[in-house]
């Protein structure tokens, strides 16, 4: 009976050791994946900041005025061309 118990305990110890080794390996894999994802997140945040800055630049009033004048040939109306409508 004690040999059977010793065998069971030996199998349990070996199984436990294998499980610990596998979980450490899996932990390393997940940590590497987490580090990679954090790096990607940081790069995306930097790109998002750049895009926000670019959008702010393109949306400035003087930029819109410049594009309206150059590309669309628009201009402010002369004083005599302005009509005020009142009700």
From TrEMBL:
<keyword id="KW-0132">Cell division</keyword>
<keyword id="KW-0472">Membrane</keyword>
<keyword id="KW-1003">Cell membrane</keyword>
<comment type="function">
    <text>Essential cell division protein. May link together the upstream cell division proteins, which are predominantly cytoplasmic, with the downstream cell division proteins, which are predominantly periplasmic.</text>
</comment>
<keyword id="KW-1133">Transmembrane helix</keyword>
<keyword id="KW-0812">Transmembrane</keyword>
<dbReference type="InterPro" id="IPR011922">
    <property type="entry name" value="Cell_div_FtsL"/>
</dbReference>
<keyword id="KW-0997">Cell inner membrane</keyword>
<dbReference type="GO" id="GO:0051301">
    <property type="term" value="P:cell division"/>
</dbReference>
<protein>
    <recommendedName>
        <fullName>Cell division protein FtsL</fullName>
    </recommendedName>
</protein>
<keyword id="KW-0131">Cell cycle</keyword>
<comment type="similarity">
    <text>Belongs to the FtsL family.</text>
</comment>
<comment type="subunit">
    <text>Part of a complex composed of FtsB, FtsL and FtsQ.</text>
</comment>
<dbReference type="Pfam" id="PF04999">
    <property type="entry name" value="FtsL"/>
</dbReference>
